[in-house]
Amino acid sequence: MNRPILRSVACALALALAACSKAPPQALGTLEYDRIGMPAPAAERVLAIKVREGEQVAAGQPLLELDPTHTQADLAAAEAQAQQQQANLLELRVGPRQEDIAKARADLAAAEAQARDARAYYQRLLPLQKDNYAAAADIDRARAAAGNANGQVAAAKAALDALVHGTRPEQVAQGEAALAAAQAQAAAQKVLLGKLALVAPRAGRVDSLPYKLGDQAPVGAPLVVLLAGDAPYARIYLQEPQRARLRVGDTVQVHVDGHDKVYQGKVRLIRSEPEFTPYYALIGEDAARLSYLAEVTLGPDAAELPVGVPVRVDYPEAKP
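Predicted structure:
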């Protein structure tokens, strides 16, 4: 048998063996990064943008600034309110001044003198009522004036007692609570002011800058979107028959579409709940259509791979 025939037979045998061999377990997915959205802490105008889309940034690097004018004014008002409450609390703790107590004693003495005069006038009118020398209306007015004077004496004495006894503990507690609330409000405004200068919470790449200079984003709108991490990870979907073949910590081979190099990865996550159709809605062979989300970390050699590229993951056979 000549060589061409032998070569043809060998190729045919190789193809037959390849067709009969069982394909290794695989899972499909895409390359992804951890996405970090940095929301707008306040509805303020974008004052400065210090990065560009696609730029690699380090943790703590300035990214974007919002106009702080309005927040600075709110902070100044909150700090002034806190100072006012602190002065009020100090006044409560120190108690009344001696001059206020002396004035209250003088007011009491004046009220007592007026009361004595009103009572004496009433007593002088009473004998005149028998012989109708004084009208009943005049006597009634004198009686009312004497009673009013006595009431003013009681009020002046109570005011003096309140000053002499000093501030109540409940009033001091209320003053302390008001001061704490004002200080907390000032602290919150200070934190908000610090958030107007956005910095990168982690190292990563700037994926998106939805707003431009001069724009005013609503509260909570993403101002900067970062792709965090030194390298992407593979987000794959495991079919139900192969779910038991893979465990967290297993090493797998990752094939990236358009790249000949095979990357080594380690499984970091496998969701316990299936994606898509819930298991209780499937019976028999339909259960094989369940898919479980898994994530595979890649090494530094995959740092330059683009996000969103399809990947195929080969993983080992079932373990005993």
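Summary: The two ends are 47 Å apart (CA to CA).
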